Amino acid sequence: MTSAVRVGVLGCGNVGGALVSLLAREANAIEARTGIRLEITRVAVRDLDKPRPPELNRAVLTTDPNAVVTADDVDVVVEIMGVLDPADELLRAALAAGKPVVTANKELLATRGVDLFAAAAAAGRDLLFEAAVGGGIPLIRPLRESLAGEPIARIMGIVNGTTNFILTRMTEDGATYEDALTEAQRLGYAEPDPTADVGGFDAGAKVAILASIAFGVGVSLDDVYCEGITKITATDIAFARRLGYVVKLLGIAEQVDGQIGVRVHPAMVPATHPLASVRDSFNAVFIEGDAVGELMLYGRGAGAMPTSSALLGDLLDAAHNLRQGGAGRAPVLSTAKLRSVDDLRSQYYLALDVADRPGVLAAVAGVLGNHGVSIQSMEQQGLGDEARLVFITHVAREADVQKTLRDLESLDAVRKIGGLLRVIGDEK
Ligand SMILES: NC(=O)c1ccc[n+]([C@@H]2O[C@H](COP(=O)([O-])OP(=O)(O)OC[C@H]3O[C@@H](n4cnc5c(N)ncnc54)[C@H](OP(=O)(O)O)[C@@H]3O)[C@@H](O)[C@H]2O)c1
Predict the structure, then answer these.
(1) Domains assigned to the chain
(2) Residue 321's closest CA among 117, 8, 99?
């Protein structure tokens, strides 16, 4: 028998508006497939006069989000406001009132997730957040459910569409970083202030959430080493290409010797790796498990409609659980033993602009050798009175490579450290 599940919506902007439209279009088909009719009964916004989707009954609009989370005619709350406060307090109030919550708020989960999950567990209600990572790509549910028994070794994700678009333009058109960023802004992929994307912080929040779910430990954005793409040059990309690699901004979460390492940085990915083929603003997450082997989930990592699709899936899950009278499930997270990025062992690409004179190569090689960083291959390119030296190292420890860079900077013959990229291969 069909029964309506009444939804209170916090926020009706890009994503909220798309959710309203998608639900209006799909409500009958969803009801026929699932027996659940989702009905929006209240919607909180800041400004009652702004345009809203034509499908929205404006009588349900309010500027009081507290009234939504406590209303008798709201069974489930969906939060798509995109702020830490008051979203945090509102979700807690909804849970305390016995209402399951669905959210797309990655900043909230990556900074206060541990406490919020505890609040959901205490309330015995669902806190679902598929839309917070990877937009329309199902990632959280596969990790929480399908892979619940899997000893996951590593997750590597292209989880920021803006930076993937910029790197794709640099790789395929030879664009400079600045030109590619301007194009991304013109197309609406990048914000006027692009720091959260190009600095790696948006990807950092997402990989913190993925690490928490994959490894069952509390990881926050503060625990993630974040390095963005602002220093990548067209020359680095061209060298990478010649060597058989593609440069990608990766969010990586891995378990090494019982410790969890979580980091975001640009990396050279072999051109034959599935992540190398993820172009433009698409996202993908590559999972390596001891039993399952390798998996990749690919799709639209952002956008109002893909994100609404994920929200609808979570709303139906929450509605189903509510109807069954079952307690919701929130992740139970233990304290993470975190691995410092200093302990990362990887191959490195290192580009240096040096004075083109005898003895310079020996001096540079000497500095690398002093820190136990050995060279796998080297290329030299003349640039007038300068030369560009490009090294690929054998596997080395991050802390030793950073010390090497500091010593190289103080060498008289080194004019500029051109670029440093970790190489995806047999690092750990
Ligand atoms: N956009 C995407 O592709 C995408 C993808 C994945 C996840 N997300 C996440 O989804 C969330 C929403 O993103 P968005 O792009 O839809 O944001 P948005 O367009 O800025 O919409 C925010 C909505 O929240 C309302 N709002 C904000 N503060 C409020 C308050 N204190 N009280 C009542 N209403 C309030 C705004 O009201 P007014 O309309 O009256 O201003 C607006 O309707 C964010 O957490 C974002 O990270 C977005």
Answers:
(1) 3-135+304-331 (3.40.50.720), 148-300 (3.30.360.10), 341-423 (3.30.70.260)
(2) 99
